Amino acid sequence: MSSVLQNSLYETQGKKFAQLNEIARQFAAIYCGNSIIKDNVFAVIENYARKKEIPLEVFRYPIHDDELWAMTFLKRGTIFVCINSALALCKQFFAAAHELYHIYCYAEDADQSYIKNGSLLDSDTANEIGKTQEDLEANAFAGLLLMPDQLLKNQLFLFGIEKEKIDVDSILQLMDMFAMPYKAVVLRLYESQCITRCQADILLNVKTTDIEKRSELTGKARRWQLDGAGTESFGSLLEKIDYNTHHDYLTESRQKEDDSFISALKKELGMD
To answer: Is the pLDDT of residue 86 over 70?
Structure first.
């Protein structure tokens, strides 16, 4: 698990990480405000696209594949962001923040190739190794946006969490506060110099089963470990169908066809 540290942007490209930290701070000031984001990350994506006048649709639906976290692609001028709602909520939030960075690069003309060619976030990229430079940056950006240095240090102070005594329960408490995955929290603590490399290595080498047992026993971070059942979204698709139906813009046969399509799609995705 130490590869999380070895492959991080913070360790491999310190100067770039510092630049990205500043980008994340400026982005948060304009689009997020000074609060912990958690599940509001989807609203942040939509707000950013709105201000940049970028057509965007955010879909959340169960893909039933633990390896696939998210994908983003451009089609006919609209950016589509698809998040796997079968994953734990904290992973969905991290995936959304990761994809937001690709959208940011596209919107700011830094690099449009990812969106144009399609971005796919899998578990390896999110957990361990960014396969490309932009994926490395996107992982770092997601952590910095969801758990900024100042807010992290504020929470440590407010809840009396001593840096020298940070353990699994402390990580679970921070996961509860920031709705972040375990590894991402440990990495952010290390990046913000709240824990040493030795502490980070020890925490990252704790078995997943032991972490889950502590979460089950203490109740900490449990709400963010649940999947997204009930939070599925087809972007504006259902709204548009309802609008067209309400204003009698569609023939009766077309309405039935659209209803049949949505029903079949929900059944296929296990949403019925």
So the answer is: yes
Residue 271 CA to residue 232 CA, distance in Å, equals 8
CA-CA distance, 172 to 211, in Å (whole number)? 8
Give the phi and the psi of residue 230 in degrees, each rounded to 5. Answer: 95, -10
Instruction: Please say whether the beta carbons of 201 and 187 come within 8 A.
Output: no
CA distance 80 to 115: 9
User: Alpha helices, DSSP H only, in the chain?
Assistant: 3-6, 9-12, 14-31, 41-51, 89-107, 113-117, 123-127, 133-146, 149-158, 168-178, 182-191, 197-204, 208-218, 237-246, 252-268
Which of 61-65, 77-81, 235-239, 256-260 comes out lowest in average pLDDT?
A: 235-239
Global pTM?
0.86
| Beta partners for residue 233, in sequence order | 60
Q: Cα separation of 96 and 131, whole Å?
A: 18
According to DSSP, residue 88 is labeled B
